[in-house]
Amino acid sequence: MREKLYRGWWYAVWREDGRTHRRALRTQDHDAAKRALKDYAASLAAPKDTVAGIYAAYLADKGTERARWAWVRLEPHFGHMRPDQIGRPASRAYRAARETEGAGVGTIHTEMTYLRAALRWHDKATPAVVELPRKPAPKSRHITREEYDRLVDAAKSAHVRLFIILALATAGRMAAVLELKWEQVDLVAGIVRLGDGTRMRKGRATVPLTTRAVAAMAEAATARTSEYVIEWGGGKVGKIRKGFAAAAEAAGLPWVTPHVLRHTAAVWMAERGVPMAEIGQFLGHSDERTTYRIYARFSPHYLRGAASALE
């Protein structure tokens, strides 16, 4: 089995019973096609009645990078089980094991949400009972504009500095920014298309760029040696946390993580009175209520009507 390009889209192609078969991998990106092909092959090889087989099929059909990362943690605990063997005891044992490894409740919640989604995708009436830990309250930490400038200036490496600028300008998750390729960027129009090309999710087809981001990317474009926007040594940057942490420490902001920049972007928009619907679309939220629950309190118009009733 191999991947093959047909009219700009990648397919899995193989020979069986003297005939050539193909299956759409639903992407125009070659790297994404390789990952999707691996997922599809795993879905064919794994026992269909085990969680491993079900999750492999789920990844092949609807999987995302985050779902793949979650499976790395989930597989040793649940891969050998059948759905009917997953109940509250197994769920609680997984949480305890992950907490021992140092994982936070929010991370564990996300991982188990993917497990539940895969099992329900396979069978809406699945006998599995996936008990999710109580989701932690959203973190409200964000940085000021002065702190952001300090963070940018503290970045010693060009690729870390560019990442910091893009992470705030796009409000993108760390993985999305690191996966960004030059073919997804239009510097003339000042826009960037987030995602790996598999499918457009949550209204994030394009994101307008700030003047600072356009200038930084234009500078990086003149010296690029890779198809990836964030590059090091002529190749893709797989991890940015170490370089980012060094910049945060140097800026006197050791608690700041890449995700704080995404949160900061939303807070700044809310503080300027940007409607929650627009903020939600920029962040890629599928439900406006999520945006409102987290960011409405930062808006200057929040509860203004309630306060006026007290005049």
UniProtKB/TrEMBL annotation:
Transmembrane segments: none annotated. Gene3D superfamilies: Intergrase catalytic core. Pfam families: Phage_integrase. InterPro entries: DNA_brk_join_enz, Integrase-like_cat_sf, Integrase_catalytic, Tyrosine_recombinase_XerCD. PROSITE patterns: TYR_RECOMBINASE. Keywords: DNA integration, DNA recombination. Residues 138-308 form the Tyr recombinase domain. This is Tyrosine-type recombinase/integrase. It comes from Falsiroseomonas tokyonensis.
